[in-house]
Write a structure and sequence with these properties.
Keywords: Cell membrane, Membrane, Plasmid, Transmembrane, Transmembrane helix, Transport. This is ABC transporter permease subunit. By secondary structure, the chain is mainly α. It contains 12 helices and 4 strands; from the N terminus they run αββαββαααααααααα. Strands 1-2 form a two-stranded antiparallel sheet. A two-stranded antiparallel ribbon has the order 3-4. The radius of gyration is 23 Å and the shape is globular.
């Protein structure tokens, strides 16, 4: 791809993201109890004008009707969601990577059992894991009388570790299954037989060659994985009563509030995918488009 085409593509992608979020934000204006209606340019322009005056944005509690300023509380919600999401992603990735390295040297039968088990566990609905994990933590508290990790809180005392660990369950299984499948496919490549014929150990081939190729192929699934985590984040934040970004996206759905919240939420995710893309190109010289 020519650098001009690449540069144009990279400039247009965030613009499409912003336009897409804006269109979703104003979509409630088109829907009434009577069906689809045209709200008029004046209504759309009014929403756009409110988005441009960030300091005056307020969100309305749908139950009490009380209005509060969106800033700076939105930054606290952003920090809460980002910590839970980031910690869950790191934990799930490294547990799956460690499991892959260990299973690489395990007997073939154990390897296949783990692969089948992770595939089966992924078929269980997400909410079952979330509820079961929370019930287990509560049961553990009643049995031991000790709170190993914080289960709930508010503000600065908000629970972070417990929601992150619960959120990490499904991605860990997904990561593990994907890594095991990709490693198995790499084992069938001609370079693996060549390397073993030269006397290189299995561990050396895995760490030096297979993992590098696996990361590139795994990166293509990053969007799907993050979409799973974001959808589960809603359930986790609700059950642990965390005031996160999903609360603002779903509870306080006024168009300007939704636009600012979604942009603040999905903007960093987009940048994170770009960092993965550039890092893989820098270390492996292989182009990955995320």
């Amino acid at each position: 791809m020519e650098w001009k085409t690449y540069l144009l593509s990279e400039i247009l992608k965030p613009l499409f993201l912003i336009v897409g979020i804006f269109l979703i934000s104003i979509s409630p204006l088109f829907m009434t109890v009577e069906g689809f209606v045209w709200p008029g340019f004046e209504s759309i322009g009014s929403v756009f004008g409110q988005m441009m005056r960030l300091e005056s944005l307020v969100y309305t509690n749908p139950t009490s009707g009380v209005e509060r300023s969106l800033f700076p509380i939105i930054f606290k919600a952003f920090a809460s969601s980002l910590r839970v999401l980031g910690l869950a992603l790191i934990v799930s990735f490294f547990i799956a990577l460690l499991g892959t390295i260990i299973l690489w040297r395990a007997p073939k039968r154990v390897y296949k059992v783990c692969l089948s088990s992770s595939s089966f566990l992924q078929s269980i609905p997400d909410v079952v894991f979330v509820v079961a994990s929370q019930m287990f933590l509560v049961w553990l508290y009643f049995q031991t009388g000790t709170t190993f990790i914080k289960l709930a809180g508010a503000g600065e005392e908000e629970a972070i570790l417990a929601p992150a660990l619960v959120l990490a369950i499904l991605p860990t299984m997904y990561f593990l299954q994907s890594m095991l499948e990709l490693v198995e496919e790499e084992r069938k490549e001609p370079y693996y037989d060549l390397a073993t014929s030269k006397g290189l150990t299995k561990s050396f081939i895995l760490l030096k060659h297979i993992l590098r190729n696996m990361f590139v192929r795994l990166a293509y699934q990053a969007k799907f994985l993050i979409s799973i985590m974001v959808s589960n984040l809603l359930i986790v934040e609700y059950l642990f009563e965390n005031l996160g970004m999903t609360s603002f996206l779903l509870t306080y759905s006024q168009p300007p509030v939704f636009f600012v919240t979604a942009l603040l939420f999905f903007g960093p995710i987009y940048l994170f995918l770009k960092v993965i893309e550039l890092s893989l190109y820098f270390f492996t010289r292989q182009e990955v488009s995320l």
